[in-house]
Amino acid sequence: QVQLVESGGGSMQAGGSLRLSCAASGPTLYACMAWFRQAPGKEREEVASIQWRTTSTNYANSVKGRFTISKDNTKNTLYLQMNSLKPEDTAMYYCAATHMWPCNRYDYWGQGTQVTVSS
Question: Tens digit of pLDDT for each residue in 56-84?
Fold first, then answer.
């Protein structure tokens, strides 16, 4: 059974940095993993994704140049380095994974970690 556990959220002033982690257990030969976020009253947004085998990455325009997704295969852990944080980055952040290509649907989700950015 796949389990995803996020950590690293918190409160930060605008301009600061945070690093989110997602520890994965269970069958971990994913096709892709991704970070999503959802702010109150807004739809869920895919922030960044990474292909497990090729490490090819993709980012939402709103975070390009500020966020970096990466993974450590030895630790089965996914990361999201968030720099130059803005108040509009405030949201619950979720880690997700899928075994199915082309990664247009994610079957496994973590419980989320809150990120709050103040101006």
Answer: 999 999 999 999 999 998 999 999 999 99
- SS3 letters across the chain: CCEEEEECCEEEECCCCEEEEEEEECCCCCCEEEEEEECCCCCCEEEEEEECCCCCEEECCCCCCCEEEEEECCCCEEEEEECCCCHHHCEEEEEEEECCCCCCCCCEECCCEEEEEEC
Task: Please answer whether residues 23 and 5 qualify as being in contact, where contact means their C-beta atoms are separated by less than 8 angstroms.
Answer: yes
Tell me the pLDDT band of 29, cut-offs 50, 70 and 90.
Answer: confident
The values of phi and psi at residue 48, to 5°, are -160, 150
User: How many residues are there in the chain?
Assistant: 119
Query: Is the preceding omega at residue 102 within 30 degrees of 0, hence cis?
Result: yes
Distance CA 31, CA 118 (A): 35
